[in-house]
Amino acid sequence: MVSLREAVADLVHDGDSVALEGFTHLIPFAAGHEVIRQRRRDLTLIRMTPDLIYDQMVGMGCASRLVFSWGGNPGVGSLHRFRDAIENGWPSPLEIEEHSHADMAARYQAGASGLPFAVTRGYVGSDLPRYNAKIRTITCPFTAENLTATPAINPDVTAIHAQKADRKGNVLIYGIIGIQKEAALAARKVIVTVEEIVDDLNAPMNSCVLPGWVISAVCVVPGGAHPSYAHGYYKRDNAFCMAWDGISKQRDTFLAWMNRHVLSTRDFAEYQRRIQSSPILISHA
Amino acid sequence: MPEYSPDEIMTVAAARRLHNGMVCFVGIGLPSAAANLARITHAPEVVLIYESGTIGAKPSVLPLSIGDGELAETADTVVSVPEIFRYWLQGGRVDIGFLGAAQIDRFGNINTTVIGGSYEKPRIRLPGAGGAPEIATAAKQVAIIMTQSRRNFVEKLDFVTSSGYSEGSNKTGGTQGRGPTTVITDLCIMNSDPTTNELTLTSLHPGVTAEQVLAATGWNLKVADKLEVTAEPSSAELAALRDLHARTTKAHGTTAIAG
Question: Is B134 a catalytic residue?
């Protein structure tokens, strides 16, 4: 168990492939902010739904490449920094590798399973394979059916947020568990931020538990999923997600916000104090 | 009859496609409003599946994202994302997919990827595929719900994200379902022709003319010989829908129908 600052400093390096996962729930915002704070560059960012957290990381110039399957602000609309990067190359050109959800999930599973590729019945009739050379067709050796094959995902680092860990570093995740288990087991190094440390996880049998021995660093960061949510702890900050539309629309308001709330804060706790003391002034356009 | 808006009759007409016992894979936005309206009115036993892994979700307000906590709390079970796509969707357990889109063509192919320019340098970059390519081909059938104009009902898509039918043939190899059998808009209902698979205008919403629909379609839309008129929303359906939106607005401060 270490601080998030130490974990990112030790485990995330320029040029790494990094997956921050959490499917609408338990999005690891604290870990993303720390990567921004430490000014990592040239990352390949992997995420099924690069929502606000990757909008922030892409807009702050952390990434040269993005691997994803749906890039929007859920229920609100566009990700303006993601769009600016793809449409105008700002702040730097962003190479994209685009998949579908079913395929990304299968690719993480293949990565966690020690297989070189994933097999699905994906993309039938879609244009995506024409623009993504990683989406290939294979023939089933038993039925001769055409199926889709895509390479496994094995990130250098996966970061996730979870509800709790015990003192040995075993981690419990519940609610919408998304793709976190697969993303963690597919990675070479794993950072988990948690709401709290407890003596006993009290995890029912068959719970989603990641044993401490598959995790590189456990960091206690209460509220570390904000503005996403942590089931049983706090709700999604929908007002923030709507306000993000206005904050991120222009480059200067985006940079000013990131500077005040992330670059000039020491850690996530200070970010949270700033958020609470300065209610969002830019209204949802 | 009560007054209603074009959006309301679209949502009600889509909701009526669902029945007790059907398993519906729900996209966010208009499809989610329609699916939940069905569940709180005539089809309380419809099974709603969201791609976040919630099976049998029964939310009291419309979710802002497909992973809102209430979906998990009210679900029969919550499974992982790989499981929802592999065992439940690809496994052939979904009766109908409810999808929205930015663009559609005459064969029910849909685009949620880019508008204008090229793929590499688009004029407008949209969110992308999400779960749609596999919902479109693995659900036993698909209903597409979207407001209609010449801008989004187009002769040629800028990008085929999720497939409907290919021209002049049946489905391309490998699809498991029957594809987009129905498109429900704020003006009308279209069904895919059983022989040619081309979308055909089959029902006009009350007060809408065929000319209006043709003017709002970017291709030469086929019109059924026998055109029906969509049944108006009942007072009960409208009251349920408006209550749902009012509860949602109160909960999120939004109507939760955007993208």
Answer: no
- In this prediction the pTM is 0.95
Q: Which CATH class is domain B6-252?
A: alpha beta
Could you tell me how many CB contacts below 8 A there are between chain A and chain B?
A: 194
Kindly provide the ipTM of the predicted complex, given to two decimals: 0.95
Distance between B187 CA and the closest CA of chain A, angstroms: 24
What residues in B contact A208, CB-CB < 8 Å?
A: 80
- All structural domains of chain A, each given as residue ranges with its CATH number in brackets, are 4-46+155-277 (3.40.1080.10), 114-151 (no CATH)
Q: What is the least distance, in Å, from the CA of B147 to any CA of chain A?
A: 16
C-beta contacts of B189-193 below 8 A and 24+ residues apart: B189/B13, B189/B230, B190/B221, B191/B224, B192/B107, B192/B108, B192/B164, B192/B165, B193/B222
**Rounded Cα gap, residues B52 and A25, in angstroms:** 9
CA of B164 vs chain A CAs: smallest distance (Å): 8
Q: Which candidate in A69, A84, A88, A100 is best for mutational testing of the B interface (most B CBs within 10 A)? A: A100
E-assigned strand segments in chain A? 17-20, 43-46, 63-68, 95-98, 117-120, 136-139, 146-151, 157-166, 171-173, 189-198, 208-210, 217-220
Output B172 or A26, whichever has higher pLDDT: A26
* Residue A61 and residue A41 in contact, taking contact as beta carbons nearer than 8 Å: yes
pLDDT at residue B67, rounded to an integer: 86
Q: Which residues, 6+ apart, have CB-to-CB distance to A26 below 8 Å?
A: A160, A161, A162, A163, A173, A175, A176, A178, A180, A225, A228, A229, A230, A231
In this predicted structure, the answer to whether residue B113 has a pLDDT above a threshold of 70 is yes
3-state SS track over B123-167? EEECCCCCCHHHHHHHCCEEEEECCCCCCCECCCCCCCCECCCCC
Assign B29 a pLDDT band (cuts: 50, 70, 90): confident
- Residues of A (247-266) whose Cβ lies below 8 Å from B: none
Binding-face residues of A in 163-222 toward B, CB within 8 A: 175-179, 181-182, 208
By C-alpha distance, the chain A residue nearest B164 is A125
- The span from the CA of B113 to the CA of A68, in Å, is 12
Helix (H, G, I), strand (E, B) or coil at A64: strand
CA dihedral B16, B69, B78, B51 (to 10 degrees): 60
Domain boundaries, chain B: 6-252
Catalytic residue among B8, B51, B134, B237: B51
Task: Answer whether B54 sits within 8 Å of A231, measured CB to CB.
Answer: no
Alpha carbons within 13 angstroms on the beta-carbon side of residue A243 total 14
